[in-house]
Amino acid sequence: MTLPFTATLSSQPGQTDDAPAWSAGLAELLASLHQRDGGDPAQAGRIRDWVRKLAAGLAQGHVCLVDEHAPWRNLSSPVLVDAARAADTVAPLVAEDERLYLYRHWQAETQLAQALSALDEAVGDAAPVAAHHLDGLNERQRQAVAMATQRRFSLITGGPGTGKTYTLVRILLALLEQNPTLHVALAAPTGKAAARMYEALSAALAKATGVTDAMRAALPTSASTLHRLLGIQYDRPAQYHAANPLPFDLVIVDEASMIDLRLASQLLAAIDPRRTRLILLGDANQLAAVEAGAVLEEMGRAPRLQAARVALNESQRFGADSGIGRLAAAICAGDSAAVLGFRRQGLDKVRFEDLPGAEALAEALFRGYAPYVDALRGGADTEAVLAAFGRFRVLCALREGTTGVAGLNERLTARLRAALGQEAGAALWFHGRPVMVMQNDYALNVFNGDIGVALRSAAGLEVFFPGRERGISVARLAHVETAFAMTVHKSQGSEFEEVAVVLPGADSQVVSRELLYTGVTRARVRVQVWAGERGLSVAVGRRTERRSGLGGKVIM
Ligand SMILES: Nc1ncnc2c1ncn2[C@@H]1O[C@H](COP(=O)(O)OP(=O)(O)OP(=O)(O)O)[C@@H](O)[C@H]1O
């Protein structure tokens, strides 16, 4: 049977405080199927209740419902199967010990765990890494090089500027020295993250010593999205899978915190443990994927994968005394007192502000876009306009409300149009409208999360994206949103000179330590934090935990 959750699962968790509307429908459906197919009518209410809770959890990124008493253990129901039998018998719900899943999440989690175990078992076929590849690295970086050159699966985590790229270059050079024809693929969950990964790696390679022309020639000339790497289009099955694995010796995936359970299981299925080495890079303290499954974090905690992971911990970007670095560290540590202390005493390059009313907030945030307004007014070329827009961004926890993306975009739009002397009007498109693509469009070659600016050109109003010469007529771009303000979720994988993080009031359930950390660390130079004391302290105090069974399932 087909369950009605495929489309709705992509509703944004962390953005509404309520259980999704579809959870009640799914609960009713399964409760009535239970009765129709001969289940004990007295148990229908329990099924309904569990499914409702499970669905609410899914919308927040949990993979399963957890109850330590496993009340589903001895329940006989046509809509529920025990995990021990789930490989042969398909039912909408799977019970596995204290966890209850929708079938396809149980299947993805189980397949991912098996693939990880198989890959992690295939270790130790490489020669030890030559000592010169370790020169100048700190202890954790050395461990990472040794690990990634020895193992088939490795996980390298670390915050911004901890040297993930720097270390990766050493790993690549060491592996290329052993095998000059190494076939390498670079990928990331979004187009933006892939582009940034490639840029960072190219820059680090340009600075590295001992890179021969042959090595350069063996390296890929771009990084792709994971969807493109795996050949996933729309909702069709991936082109690469267990029976047709990816034709690479080494696959490197950046920004792995953004990978959800389904994509992770598709990626691992496409890795041939006899041939391919997989290196995942990411920041485990960041927000997890919007969809179900905090895969990176789970992998990071799985006891059996301990030898396959290294956490880099010395940031070169944010020195120990940098304001952003100290703030990020205090947020990560859940140290509300320290964060409130910074807020009261002041912190270098960090501006803390109380939340004013809607108009005053928009007015203050609009000042961040002054260089962008100047570029548009002065008739700067497209590249300069895009660069000016890329300097600053407003990042929100919510979509709706005074502090939400939608309202702020409206108010910032009105201010930009006034500043440019445009008539205030209801027109959706205008010269200077920054937009974010919300859906992959393979025909236009634009992807979820790409950001461009609408500019008047000889061909009319066209959207220009960084790194692309030609604009795209606004009429062809259906799934876009104005992008002065964006959610913290959507900002993952991007970086700006300055960001303004806007939190809602203290009673919101959606703000968390991971969200605030992700927002703050999108800034390279300066950050503004718009939140009252209580809101800030609640955010720092709340850790998101994702319920799943992955950690315990990976075995060797
Ligand atoms: N061991 C080291 N010796 C000298 N410089 C280093 C070392 N490790 C990192 N760096 C430098 O620190 C800076 C940050 O490193 P890098 O860009 O690799 O971090 P990153 O973790 O990839 O950051 P991000 O997550 O922001 O992309 C770079 O300028 C890099 O050259």
UniProtKB/TrEMBL annotation:
Function text: A helicase/nuclease that prepares dsDNA breaks (DSB) for recombinational DNA repair. Binds to DSBs and unwinds DNA via a highly rapid and processive ATP-dependent bidirectional helicase activity. Unwinds dsDNA until it encounters a Chi (crossover hotspot instigator) sequence from the 3' direction. Cuts ssDNA a few nucleotides 3' to the Chi site. The properties and activities of the enzyme are changed at Chi. The Chi-altered holoenzyme produces a long 3'-ssDNA overhang and facilitates RecA-binding to the ssDNA for homologous DNA recombination and repair.
Pfam families: AAA_19, UvrD_C_2
Alphabetical list of SMART domains matching this protein: AAA
HAMAP family in the cross-refs: RecD
BP-aspect Gene Ontology terms: double-strand break repair via homologous recombination
Ranges that cross the membrane: none
Catalytic activity: ATP + H2O = ADP + phosphate + H(+)
Keywords: ATP-binding, DNA damage, DNA repair, DNA-binding, Exonuclease, Helicase, Hydrolase, Isomerase, Nuclease, Nucleotide-binding
Cellular component annotations (GO), alphabetically ordered: exodeoxyribonuclease V complex
Name of this chain's protein: RecBCD enzyme subunit RecD
Residue ranges occupied by any AAA+ ATPase domain in the UniProt entry: 150-285
Positions that bind ATP: G158, G159, P160, G161, T162, G163, K164, T165
Similarity comment: family membership: Belongs to the RecD family.
Enzyme class at the top of the EC tree: isomerase
Species in which this protein is naturally found: Fluviicoccus keumensis
Subunit text: Heterotrimer of RecB, RecC and RecD. All subunits contribute to DNA-binding.
EC nos: 5.6.2.3
ATP-binding listed as a keyword: yes
Note: In the RecBCD complex, RecB has a slow 3'-5' helicase, an exonuclease activity and loads RecA onto ssDNA, RecD has a fast 5'-3' helicase activity, while RecC stimulates the ATPase and processivity of the RecB helicase and contributes to recognition of the Chi site.
MF-aspect GO terms: 5'-3' DNA helicase activity; ATP binding; ATP hydrolysis activity; DNA binding; exodeoxyribonuclease V activity; single-stranded DNA helicase activity
